[in-house]
Structures are given as structure tokens and as C-alpha cells.
Amino acid sequence: MILLPQRIAHVFLLDFRTIDDSKLEAYEKPLSEEELKRLDEFSDPALRRKQLITRMAVRSCLSQYSDSISPEDWTFAHNANGKPQVADDAPMDLSFNLSHSGEWLAVAITVEAEIGVDLQERDHHRSVTALAERFFHPDEARELAEMAEKRQPEQFFRLWTLKEAYLKAVGKGIANGLDKARFHLDNNGLINTEFDPALKDDAHQWQFHHYELDDDYCLSLAMKQPRAQDASPHFYKIIPGEMLEPLNLLAHEIQIE
Description:
- The protein is an alpha+beta fold.
- The protein has helices at residues 24-28, 33-39, 45-62, 128-135, 138-145, 152-169, and strands at 10-15, 76-78, 84-86, 94-101, 104-111, 115-121, 181-185, 191-195, 206-213, 217-224, 234-239, 243-250, 253-255.
- The protein has one domain: CATH 3.90.470.20.
- The strands form 4 sheets. Strands 4-5-1-11-12-13 form a 6-stranded mixed β-sheet, with helices on one face.
- It starts with 9 loop residues before the first strand and ends with a strand.
């Protein structure tokens, strides 16, 4: 059991490659009938496997805060924007968000506040400048194009994950404004943000964090909390029903091993 994430965030990381297939049958037991029905809609066994592990991981992460709440005790709903959340009759009032890419899953949890997480495996074979011109704020696209080519993918995915994390926190898709949240990142990792008036939101009420993982992955977190209150997250590595261990940071890199 760990302490509740009051005014901070906990981010649980799961490597799909660490899950033995012998655990999968047990992972189905805590799931609801609706979750099991959705699993059966996956025709690709590999995708079904990842979805099953994801659903179990969410339940297991939420249950880390009480010895008396089992993974099967959690019920879920969707807010007005369609964002998944714990239901009103759930045993604790927690906010969560999740993201998966490649072989990694991230589950971010806090108490009550809006939260969003985005995890991405970098793709070095796409034209990131063309994508930035299409989706980003014009100043961000220009600054990216002026960078050395070898630095462009790293900067692009920093910006992309920050924008996705924010839009996921408020329950909106990327069509609602990747270009409307403009991010400034300095060499020390400080992140400042400007919101377009169309978002009808106050950037000073949000905190943003960005981290690097091994295997060329990156992760960003958005949490609605005034900047004066540091909400820097704590990281854990998890295997549901088997292992939970804290992870350390070296600068802005998550130390997985």
C-alpha cells in the first residue's frame, strides 16, 4: 500500500514484455462484463492481450492505495466528454488517465484533479517538420524547422506528448487544438505554456512535466494544479498481482532498471 497522491501524481509504468502469458487467465477475473465483451471484439490476439493487461493494470494501480480494496471492486464511467473515470460509487475518489505505445503502458493517478498522460515511442522515419506545420502552433513549427535535423524528432515528440497530455486531461481529442496550447521548453526542462482564448482555460492553473524513458520513449504529464504547488510525479514500475517498485529519476530521465 502507498500513500494517496494528494496534490501530486503517481505514474505507474508497465512493460508488456514482462507479463507472462500464464497470468492472463487470472487477469480476466476482476474485469466487468462490459470489459470482457470489449476484449472479445479484438480479432488480433496481440492487441487483445495488451488490452487485457491494460484493464487489469488500471484496476491494480488504483488498488495500491488501500489494503481492503481489491482490483475487482472498481467501477468505471465516462464524463461528459467521454473521458474514462472512476464511477461515483467507486470506493475512492481518484482521477486517472492512461497511455500506451509500443511495449509500454503508463497509468497516471491523482486525487480529484484533472490529469492526463501521454506516452510515445519516437518514430525517426516520419517527417516531423511536416506534421508540426500541420498540427502545431506556427511558432513551434518554425522553431522546430530551424533546429538541427538530428534534434527534431526529440523536440517534436516532447511537444506532441505535452499537447496530448493536456487534451486528454480535459477530455478532448487532438482535433480540438494541438495548435492552441503553445509550449516553451528551456534547456533546464522548465515548461511554460500559453493557451489560445478558444480553449477558455487558464494556463497558470496547469502544471506540465516531461520525461525520457529508455528504448527511445518519452512521456508527458498534465495536471490541473497551480504552478506554485509542485506536483512533480512519483514513478513506479508494476506487474499486476506480483510487483510494485519505485523508480528513480536522473535529471529528467526515468531510470527503469
